[in-house]
Amino acid sequence: MLHTVYEFYACGLDSNGKQDEAGSNRSLLLSLDEWTQFLTDCDLFDEDFTREKAVLCFKWSQMYVTDEVKRAETLLHLNFVDFLEAIGRVCTMKPLPTPEILKAYNSRSVAHFYSQADEDLHAGRELLRRPLDWQEEESSTAPLRPVLESLISLILERLSASETQLTRKELRTRLLAKQKKRERMRAAQMTKQRAGHDGSASGGFLSQLIEGRDLV
């Protein structure tokens, strides 16, 4: 099931937003944008598990390469095994209800637990609001299986219960829109930097006017 999810989100967009040819190496790899889109569709982001932490899970799961130029695609993406590792790392950063907590609140599943909390049927979320030290979690000898099973259950149920049926075409549209937005932000930042450089080159006249300094 997870392999099917991985193949769906690793849709292989090239730099122009077009899908790579079937069978290409890129089409088998997951980008950071695709990873964050997957987590967004699973509704996993909250006060505890932020986008910054999601990026760390991605980066720390990437494969090391000996040639960063020839193997740039491998360096910048996740293969399926890396994807599984990234999911495991999410477990160290996102607090999840234990089987005992689920039983205490008569929750049928992890997703049901969160649905109950959203409807104010219980205050179980408060039991999860504790500082989670990923370093302590990663060095822990406690088995990962219980919490990993909870996370996978949440992922699969959230995806299957989505109100909108996400297609590969819609996924590519979302990723392309995100890419264009990032390009616009980068262009605006470069324009701002150039404007600042021009102002300083003219003796700081514009910046002094803006700040209301005396020019005498």
Describe the structure.
The protein is an all-alpha fold and 216 residues long. It has one domain (2-211). The chain has helices at residues 2-9, 32-41, 51-61, 72-76, 80-91, 99-104, 110-118, 125-128, 134-138, 145-160, 168-201, 205-211. Helix 2 (32-41) packs across helix 3. The chain starts with a helix and ends in a 5-residue tail after the last helix. The model is unreliable at 20-26 and 204-216 (pLDDT under 50).
Portion in beta strands: under 5%
Q: What is the average of the pLDDT values?
A: 76
The span between the termini is: 72 Å
- Helicity level: 55-70%
List the uncertain runs: 20-26, 204-216
User: How many structurally independent domains?
Assistant: 1
Helices and strands: which structural class?
A: mainly alpha
Helix count from the secondary structure assignment: 12
Rg, please?
22 Å
SSE order, as H and E? HHHHHHHHHHHH
What's the β-strand tally?
0
Largest sheet: none
Shape descriptor: globular
Features:
globular, mainly alpha, 216 residues, 59% helix, 12 helices, single chain, disordered C terminus
What is the topological layout?
Layout: H1 2-9, H2 32-41, H3 51-61, H4 72-76, H5 80-91, H6 99-104, H7 110-118, H8 125-128, H9 134-138, H10 145-160, H11 168-201, H12 205-211
Helix pairs in contact: 2-3, 3-5, 5-10
Quick overview of this protein structure:
The protein is mostly helical and 216 residues long. It has helices at 2-9, 32-41, 51-61, 72-76, 80-91, 99-104, 110-118, 125-128, 134-138, 145-160, 168-201, 205-211.
